């Protein structure tokens, strides 16, 4: 039986870093829709050309495109980073997990206050030069998170799979909280 973990949380919460470490240590595949999309943009594929302006504005890429990517990349043991981001994506993922006999081990919600998120993202902009890490886009991405993605907190809470984790502190401290919350 397959196993899956979802990382949920606003941009800048440190999901990507934590998901990478957990995937590496547990032998899971990390599936980051943001990374896959950025790779398409960098390679200038037709998909990349289509999503580039959407990502630069800080808006969400259409659900059907995202779901196609997920179907292509799904693995037996998988950690989702940055997916699902809408209720439609979450419902489609539920169906996909049921179809493939994959058990959801938990949904990790990494919680960080808004001022700290903006500070972290602007720092990442200096280090990585991501084109969507400027102040205006960051505000838009946070707004989109509150509007489209935050409802998933209630969705997963109602299913009893939500694990809230304090995202403040060192990466090691946050990582230890995540392992404890998931019990793995
Ligand atoms: P991330 O690296 O997860 O912050 O994603 C960067 C950008 O990619 C987002 O601002 C969206 O434009 C797009 N994106 C990534 N994942 C998704 C998703 N699951 N649904 C829609 N858009 C996404």
From TrEMBL:
Q: Which GO terms describe its molecular function?
A: AMP kinase activity; ATP binding
Q: Which PANTHER family match?
A: NUCLEOTIDE KINASE
Q: In which pathway does it act?
A: Purine metabolism; AMP biosynthesis via salvage pathway; AMP from ADP: step 1/1
Which GO BP annotation is one of this protein's?
A: AMP salvage
Name under which the protein is recorded: Adenylate kinase
- Where does this chain mainly localize? cytoplasm
| EC number in record | 2.7.4.3
Species per Swiss-Prot/TrEMBL record:
Thermus parvatiensis
Q: Relate the protein's function as given in its record.
A: Catalyzes the reversible transfer of the terminal phosphate group between ATP and AMP. Plays an important role in cellular energy homeostasis and in adenine nucleotide metabolism.
* Swiss-Prot/TrEMBL keywords: ATP-binding, Cytoplasm, Kinase, Nucleotide biosynthesis, Nucleotide-binding, Transferase
**Where is ATP bound in this sequence?**
12-17, 124, 169
Q: How does it assemble?
A: Monomer.
Q: Does the keyword Magnesium apply?
A: no
Its family?
A: Belongs to the adenylate kinase family.
Sequence positions that bind AMP: 33, 38, 59-61, 82-85, 89, 130, 141
């Amino acid at each position: 039986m397959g196993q899956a973990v979802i990382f949920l949380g606003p941009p800048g919460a440190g999901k990507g870093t934590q998901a990478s470490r957990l995937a590496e240590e547990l032998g899971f595949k990390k599936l980051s829709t943001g990374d896959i999309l950025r790779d398409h943009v960098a390679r200038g594929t037709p998909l990349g050309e289509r999503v580039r302006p959407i990502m630069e504005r800080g808006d969400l890429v259409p659900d059907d495109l995202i779901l196609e990517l997920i179907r292509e990349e799904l693995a037996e043991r998988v950690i989702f980073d940055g997916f699902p981001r809408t209720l439609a994506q979450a419902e489609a993922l539920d169906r996909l997990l049921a179809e493939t006999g994959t058990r959801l081990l938990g949904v990790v919600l990494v919680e960080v206050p808004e001022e700290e998120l903006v500070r972290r993202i602007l720092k990442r902009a200096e280090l990585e030069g991501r084109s969507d890490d400027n102040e205006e886009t960051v505000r838009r991405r946070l707004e989109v998170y509150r509007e489209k993605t935050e409802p998933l907190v209630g969705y997963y809470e109602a299913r009893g799979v939500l694990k809230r984790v304090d995202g403040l502190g060192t990466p090691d401290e946050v990582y230890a909280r995540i392992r404890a919350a998931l019990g793995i």
